[in-house]
Design goal:
The structure is a homodimer. With about 350 residues, chain A is α/β, with parallel strands linked by helices. Chain A is about 45% helix and about 15% strand. Chain A has 11 helices and 11 strands. In chain A, the strands form 2 sheets. In chain A, strands 3-2-1-4-11-10 form a 6-stranded mixed beta sheet, sandwiched between helices. A 5-stranded mixed beta sheet of chain A has the order 5-6-9-7-8, with helices on both faces. In chain A, helix 1 links the parallel strand 1 and strand 2. The longest helix of chain A has 26 residues. The first copy, chain A, is globular and about 60 Å long. The two termini of chain A are about 35 Å apart. The interface between A and B is large, with 61 and 61 residues.
Chain lengths: ~350, ~350
């Protein structure tokens, strides 16, 4: 593995593949000299797009994969059968060590299954969580898990908390990140059975800064840096964030267009508002890493365009350079040694 | 019971009691001739506030209750011991038939416990859900359950769906309300164990218009009228709605104040925006009914002011006049007869 971070990008996944994937890859290598990209997918289609750009040819390599896994396909079957799909070929590049990370806007299910079966879990990790960054009033928080493992057990949530803390500290650069568990009240005795069982386990941990429960109301204020949640509630949080943000913004736009007076006002506030809303735009923060694997796998939105793809690729550099994989491994093994 | 709807109002519950409670009560009887209010709490305090208004003295009665249940008190104990609290006395007015409904901005826990033990469940109802209306792009949707029963079973969710459908049809006036279950994907095979077990049961029901799964992203668009959820996820949805809405609006205001140009624009868009944001203001829609009881119990926000209290009281009129209690009872008994 060279010092440069190698990212395998699924050129065929997502609503805007391959055009926006290729554009995002070119953009990323122009932004940073510390990254190279393997564009994985149908080579003629990829070369067709690549022809539009000038770029450092040493840092983009096309890797042919003739099949595509569709979003609707049952993931386990798809990963097993489509051996020449962009997801399977891309993940194998990580497995073999040729690439450090795999980024895809394709089928979530296939990415989750492939991550576990092809890239493989770090020894000791029970379930790899999907952990996107969500925008808050103070910056960003890590929401872990947002959909990889429904019906999780307390021991899974404990691992999520520790991995999330490592990620926020070393990838995002938050010192002693505040770790909280999503709950329906602030008191320790509140919550469902899972939260009640998990809470005391988190309280015992000495390697994270556990601050207790967080109610969903306080998440957008940025009250915690790492938001630990079972995948069902986590997914609800992530999706509602997206939906409610979009509806509110569109309502506000409609409101501004409702009279001549407000239309003139809208022209004047537009530049300032654009800046504000950009802070709440999920695509600014790249994709969601699937943590706890022997290599990095990043899932972006299905609707990701070049900007999100490029940001996701750049994110992989820090992940490698900060040796997150090694840090998670050490952390999990420490747990086993202490016999918890 | 007279034809007029009698509402017992907890004059001591909530952040702004008793002033805003009394103001809300006076406002409600001025808005509708079909309602009378029992103001339950410390009579000197209530009379002190009442003295500020002129109102129809036949339709406001003060009922003395010397104790107050605090939000932090363990609910079961509080209901058992504080027999002369405004919550216990108010609920007993419903139990005895003197009042049709009880409205409180006080301790959620005490209201849930008191509703079940003092007012009592309708025979056949397993768990009474708390069901607030939430604003959407199309109007409002009923979120059922938002926090009364964590770790619910499929049979509970089936009852929530049926009660919610009755409420939306007869109180809110939506014909054949669309009922959906909160899920993390649109397909039937997606979800956690609870959703997977509940889905086929909902599909079998002939008395509701079940439309399948709804992802949290689509809730704000108003894709379903009745949103069925286990209480933990439901509470997360409700609280995130409030928190994210508030943070976005405050960010937008900050953005508008960031330059002279945008400040001038803000003045021009303000009236139009105010109207828009009002549609997304939860206090416009009154409190959340606790359904499935032998009488109506309504929980408002702890921060409720006169407007929300008044709206909550008015809401009780429709509930009584549309005989929601009787309709739920018939529906649940039909279920038992069909041997489901």
């Amino acid at each position: 593995m060279s010092e440069i971070t190698g990212v395998a990008l699924d050129a065929m996944g997502g609503d805007y593949a391959p055009a926006e994937m290729v554009k995002g890859a070119v953009d990323a290598i122009n932004r940073s000299k510390r990254v190279k990209v393997f564009l994985v997918g149908r080579e003629e289609a990829i070369h067709g797009e690549l022809g539009k750009y000038t770029y450092d040819k040493d840092r983009i390599r096309v890797v042919n994969a003739t099949e595509v896994i569709e979003t609707a396909e049952p993931p386990v079957n798809a990963i097993r059968r489509k051996k020449d799909s962009s997801i399977v070929v891309g993940m194998k590049l990580v497995k073999s060590g040729e690439a450090d990370a795999f980024v895809s806007a394709g089928s979530s299910g296939a990415i989750l299954v492939g991550g576990q079966t092809l890239v493989g879990r770090i020894k000791g990790i029970e379930r790899p969580p999907l952990a996107p960054l969500i925008p808050t009033a103070k910056g960003v928080s890590l929401l872990i898990d947002c959909g990889a493992n429904v019906d999780a057990r307390p021991s899974h949530l404990v691992q999520f908390a520790r991995m999330g803390s490592i990620y926020m500290e070393h990838v995002i650069g938050v010192r002693k990140p505040k770790v909280a568990i999503v709950n329906i009240g602030a008191e320790e005795e509140k919550g469902n059975a899972l939260v009640k069982e998990t809470f005391p386990l988190l309280k015992e941990l000495t390697d994270i800064n556990f601050t207790g429960s967080i109610e969903a109301r306080d998440i957008p204020y940025g009250e915690a840096d790492v938001i630990v949640s079972e995948a069902f509630a986590g997914n609800v949080i992530l999706k509602l964030y997206e939906g409610l943000g979009a509806v509110l913004v569109s309502k506000i736009k409609d409101g501004m267009m409702s009279s001549l007076r407000s239309k003139i006002g809208a022209l004047l506030v537009k530049p300032a508002l654009k800046e504000t809303l950009k802070q709440f735009d999920a695509t600014e923060y790249g994709g969601a890493p699937l943590l706890g694997l022997k290599g990095l796998v990043v899932k972006t939105h299905g609707s990701a365009k070049a900007k999100e793809i490029s940001n996701s690729i750049i994110q992989c550099i820090t992940f490698k350079e900060q040796q997150i994989y090694e840090k998670i491994m050490t952390c999990i093994q420490t747990e086993s040694v202490s016999g918890e």
